[in-house]
Amino acid sequence: MSSFITHWVTSGGIVLVFVLMAAESCGVPFPSEVIMPFAGFLAAQGHINLPGAILAGTLGNVAGSLVAYALAARFGRLLLLGPGRRIGIREGHLDLADRWFERYGLTAVLIGRVLPVVRTYISFPAGLARVDLSRFTVLTFIGALPWCIALAAGGYAIGANYSRISGPIEIVAIILAVVVIAIVVGWLIRGRSRAAAPRP
To answer: Are 30 and 24 within 8 A, CB to CB?
Structure first.
């Protein structure tokens, strides 16, 4: 099984980085803050190539952004707030991206690539405004590249030193798991208490 997983990661890891980063840029909730550090971690373990993973992440971001741009330009907010809700697109996301784009124009495409939430949805108002596609593409690449480098480098650093920090990481993971379980149990108990309480 471990041999199969290693082979799967080695042969498909970079492709998966591209696909997931493209999906994120289309509004699908696959956070790059998880994808790229994990890619860096795999690179440190020798399963994939770090520059290749960074390039795949950046190009995936560009590809997904172009799809989002095209969908917005062709179908507008009706599609984004209709079927788009099924993949997590909300009106608040678009409003935030709209405000950024109205304030900064094409500069928002560049700066927005390193801002959570904004980076995922900034392509939609750009498509609605039908900005120059070549400039949009170049600014998307320039903005996405340092973001992917920083996240992948962080994951690589963790992977390279994993043997020394695996103990603390496991302890923190256990603590977080306990906290999450306690929150869920408390939420369930509170919900049942409210449901059982007599109504005035």
So the answer is: yes
Contact 59, 24 (CB under 8 A): no
For the residues 163-170, what does the mean pLDDT come to? Answer: 51
Identity at 81, one-letter amino acid code = L
Distances (CA, A) of 155 to 44, 76, 159, 174: 8, 37, 6, 20
Question: Contact 152/54 with Cβ under 8 angstroms?
Answer: yes
For 98, residues 6+ apart whose C-beta sits below 8 A from its C-beta are 125
pTM across the whole model: 0.68
Task: State how far Cα 155 lies from the chain centre.
Answer: 15
Spell out the residues 6+ positions from residue 17 whose beta carbon is closer than 8 angstroms to its own: 35, 36, 39, 48, 53, 56, 57, 60
